Amino acid sequence: MEAVVPRIFKSSVIVPVPKKTSISTLNDYRPVALTPVAMKCLEKLVLVHLNNIVPDTIDPLQFAYRPNRSVDDAVSVALHHVLQHLDYSGTYVRTLFLDYSSAFNTIRPVRLIEKLAELGIPTPTCNWILDFLIERPQV
Q1: What sign for the dihedral angle of Cα 3, 133, 99, 45?
Q2: In degrees rounded to 5, what are phi and psi of residue 40?
Q3: Whole-prediction pTM
Q4: What is the pLDDT of residues 30-47, one digit of tens each?
Q5: What is the dihedral of CA 130, 133, 137, 139, to 10 degrees?
Q6: From which residue to which does any coiled coil extend (predicted)?
């Protein structure tokens, strides 16, 4: 069995959705990709498969793109660690917060597949994900 995603399933229609009510520049829009329903179903199946394989390897402090996790959880955990140092004189805290702009759009598929393979994701699944991510026609 080949890990090939039919081209028709990989096509998407890009629709600009306003980020806020007052639009003044193109940056005030968020591009949203509308994909075929059949593809969304396949994506969910692959996600279930990945969740059955990967959960123990994901850092517990990873909050983005995880169910039942939010930016509020990340802030709460960070604040908890910072406030713990108030009990101890002579200690200090350094924090670093990173937010990668357009991170999802800048992922290199081949590098992602290398990382998934390092996590122990089976080769057929990696190949399917790679085929899913490349050569995606957009309208």
Answers
A1: negative
A2: -60, -40
A3: 0.69
A4: 889 899 999 999 999 988
A5: 170
A6: none
